[in-house]
Structures are given as structure tokens and as C-alpha cells.
Amino acid sequence: MDTQQLKPWSRREFLERMTAASAVGALSLYPEIAAAEPPPETTSIRIIYDPTFPILCFGPQYVATEMLKLEGFTDISYIPYEESDKYYDSPVLASGRADISGAWIADVIATGDRGGELVALSGMHIGCTEIFAHEGINSIRDLKGKKITLASEDSAEKGWLSILFTYIGLDPERDIEWVVHPYEEWGDLLAAGEVDAVVLWPPDAQVFREQKIGHVILDTGTDKPWKDYYCCTIAGSRDFVSKNPVATKRTVRAMLKATDLCALEPELAARAVVANGFPTDYETALQVFSEVPYAIWREYDPEDSFRFYALRMHQLGLIKKPPDALISRITDWRFLNELKQELKA
Questions:
Q1: 312 burial via Cβ count (<10 Å: 0-12, 13-18, 19+)
Q2: Within a domain: residue 102?
Q3: CA 234/CA 247 separation, integer angstroms
Q4: Segment 206-240, tens digit of pLDDT
Q5: N or C end of the chain: which has fewer CB within 10 A?
């Protein structure tokens, strides 16, 4: 479906459709809970956003606009990356330029280890990461001696891939040839055989499959042990969280309700993303929301995921602080634990 064919929704129409979803048991807005709480300490909230490459697995934070308004926020800003951010969310949160946003778990851990002032608040989903390789490479072990491209030498994906290779007995420094290329060139490089594999996130993973560029040799949504741990979390600036606990809880609640919407009503969520003006099309957003496993935030323990990754990052020398001490410093599950009780449906 062409984005131009989608008539923008009014706020009233969006809420009417949300109410209809709630009426059939697919989603609850829980207005009575929000009404019983104190108002947020601030009515402004800043969320990270890349206008040139929206990472659609973070879709709940784009869907959540109207839910944030229901939570009392009147000034909802989407903050773009700066060139120095290298397209990772955790340094932006740690700098205080944004308040709460989706963030990749390994990047949260690495940023926290460097002393970054951020805190993880909840898991968001599993299974958004896929590794694509060209013909003749059929498993992760087949990548020994092969060339994998990165966006930068110190990129978070190198850390994640190093964990993966070590887990199966490969040495990420001796057994892999790392090369650096701009992200937008990866498709052409893989198709031409100039690199052997790339790691991708939505919507590029969906685009590669559609264009038949390489094939998937690992999918964290289906392959163990990766499918058992969060890849993406909801994190916040430590300063914002400490000063605004009510606003923090309300923001996390809006994002988790939006996560439910992506899982249970992907058509409605995809329509909302396009109607809210984010640069994607309905079909792409629908495919992402239909594929990413969002409906797990009540069942998975995010601390298990942080421990799984932090232990391995520490063993590899990617972080210096002891994992338990680091996890204690950079995680705060009190809001999530309250919301699990409130949002039981």
C-alpha cells in the first residue's frame, strides 16, 4: 500500500480505533489507573529518533504518541541523532539530550560500563537481529576466516557479534576479518560478494529478504540461546528518571501499551506509525510489527538478559566492571514490576 493512499487519522479517530481494540479484549487503555495517579512532574518527554533511518523494531515508541498524551504529556519531542552518536541510543540518553527511548541491550551495558548516566527500565522485545550471508555460507561457523562489515570499529554490533562467535568457540579477533563501511552500502557489498556477512535490524532485514540479498543464517527470534533474551530495552536518562518518577512510569506504561498494540493489532500499529508522520510505509511497518516478538515483556525477566550479556562482555574484556555491580548500577525495575501488576490483561 502506498503511504500516500493512507488518509491521516485525527486524534479522535485513532482513539476510537484504540477503544474498539480494547472492547474486544486486544488492548486496554487503563485510563482509570492513570487518572488515580499524581500528574507527571513534567509534561515534556524527549525520545530518540533518526529521521533518515527509523529503526522499526523500536516501533512502540513511535506508536505511543497518543498514549503519551493520555498519560498527560503535552510536549512530545523526537530527538535526532548527531553525527558523533554513531546511530546508537545509549550515549544520547547518557548525555541527557533525550529522556527515555528504546536501546540495544549490549549498548546500554557498554555505555553504563564507561560511566554513562543511564538506566534500563524494561525489556521491549526479543528477536529483531538477523545475520545475512551470501551463498555458500550456511551457518555461523562458516564465517571463520570470512569478512564481516561494521559501521565503525567500536560499534555495538561488533560487541554483540563477538559474544556470538565466542559462544560457539570462534575467536572474534583471529577468526573474523572485520571491515568498516557505511551502513547504506552494506546491501550492495553483500550482493557483490565484497563482504561475506552483515548483521541487520528492521526494516533493512525485511528489505534484504524482499530483494533476495543474501540469506539468513541466524535469526535471534527463533535461534537459541538468543531467542531467550531481550535484544532491545527501554532505557532512560538517570537524571530524568531520578527527578521524574511519575513521568517515568507513565512513559514506560505508554510504551509497553504500544508494545502490546504492535503485538496484538499490528495493522493498527502500522497505520499509527504512518499517520504520525514517521518516514516508512504501511506495508513495511506491518511486516516488521507482525514479525518481531513483542508479546513477551510480561514473561521475560530483563535482568536475566542483562546478566547473560554482561557476563560474556566481561569475559571478552568488552566491559571492565564486574557484571553484578554494573547491573545493580544501570537497572531499575521498580516501574516495570508495578506495571506488570497493573497491566495483567
A1: buried
A2: yes
A3: 14
A4: 888 888 999 999 998 899 999 999 989 999 999 99
A5: C
Residue 224 falls inside a structural domain:
no
Q: Which amino acid is at 59?
A: G
Task: Specify whether 109 is located in the same domain as 174.
Answer: no
Per residue in 94-112, pLDDT (tens digit) is 888 999 999 889 989 999 9
CB 305 within 8 A of CB 297: no
What DSSP line would sit under 57-126, residue for residue?
Answer: GGHHHHHTHHHHHHTT-SEEEEEPPPGGGTT-HHHHHHHTS-SEEEEEHHHHHHHHHTT--EEEEEEEES
User: Buried b / exposed e across 101-134, counting CB within 10 Å, b at 16+?
Assistant: bbbbbbbbbbbbbeebbbbbbbbbbbbbbbbbbb
Inter-residue contact 199 to 160 (CB < 8 Å): yes
What b-and-e string marks burial along 236-248, b requiring 16 or more CB atoms within 10 Å of the CB? Answer: bbbebbeebbbbb
**165: closest CA among 131, 213, 194, 214?**
131
User: Model's pTM, two decimal places?
Assistant: 0.87
Specify the 3-state DSSP secondary structure of 244: coil
